[in-house]
TrEMBL record:
The keyword Translocase does not apply. Keywords: DNA-binding, Transcription, Transcription regulation. Residues 37-56 bind DNA. Pfam families: TetR_C_11 (PF16859), TetR_N (PF00440). This is TetR/AcrR family transcriptional regulator.
Length: 198
């Protein structure tokens, strides 16, 4: 089993890194994960393949880091003073960006199950950091007395939120939108936790 490469620091500027990530995500949308190659990324970004491998180790890590980099901020930085405010604060991307992200997630869904390197990078670099950040929001809600620590729905909050995002297109044939996700939080997530949506 391949190890996820450790974080590397190089002379690549943050601006150049952002350009590379944008190109990777564009290619991913165009051809899908399986057909995406490091050669194609190198050509699209006018980089050497050796530089790409030295910086990111391989395609799986590069793709997942590109996805992580497009996040608008760190979830643990959200602290509005209420669980409802914090959960609404998670939905900060505009509808076009959310639609693009949903398309990327659909493109990667099968590849994650078929490719061990991608699955591991996805879990280590995207899923686990997201869950850890999200737990900070939950801890604050418990400390404020908004949610009981023994509420069984706490174990399913991430599943509920990701599920709503991921299945909107499948079930309703419509992309996830900010309005939809906020109404879902108020109608489903908060009541499950015993929190008033108002």
């Amino acid at each position: 089993m391949a190890e996820v490469a450790t974080v590397r620091r190089s002379r690549i500027t943050p601006e150049r890194e952002a350009e590379l990530y944008a190109a990777v995500l564009d290619l991913l949308r165009e051809v899908g994960y399986d057909a995406l190659t490091m050669d194609a990324v190198a050509a699209r970004t006018r980089s050497s393949k050796a530089t790409l491998y030295r910086q990111w180790g391989g395609k799986a890590e590069l793709v997942v880091r590109a996805m992580r980099a497009q996040k608008p901020g760190v979830t643990s930085d959200i602290d509005t003073g209420s669980l409802r405010g914090d959960l609404h604060g998670l939905i900060s991307q505009d509808d076009c960006v959310m639609e693009e992200n949903a398309a990327l997630m659909r493109a990667l869904a099968m590849a994650v199950h078929m490719n061990e390197d991608l699955r591991r990078a996805f879990k280590d670099l995207l899923v686990e950091p997201e869950v850890e950040e999200f737990q900070g929001i939950v801890r604050r809600a418990i400390e404020r007395g908004e949610v009981r620590a023994d509420n069984p729905a706490l174990a399913y909050m991430v599943h509920m939120l990701v599920g709503a995002f991921a299945t909107r297109t499948l079930i309703d044939e419509r992309p996830p939108t900010r309005e939809f996700l906020i109404s879902y939080i108020d109608a489903v997530v908060l009541p499950a936790l015993g929190v008033s949506p108002r």
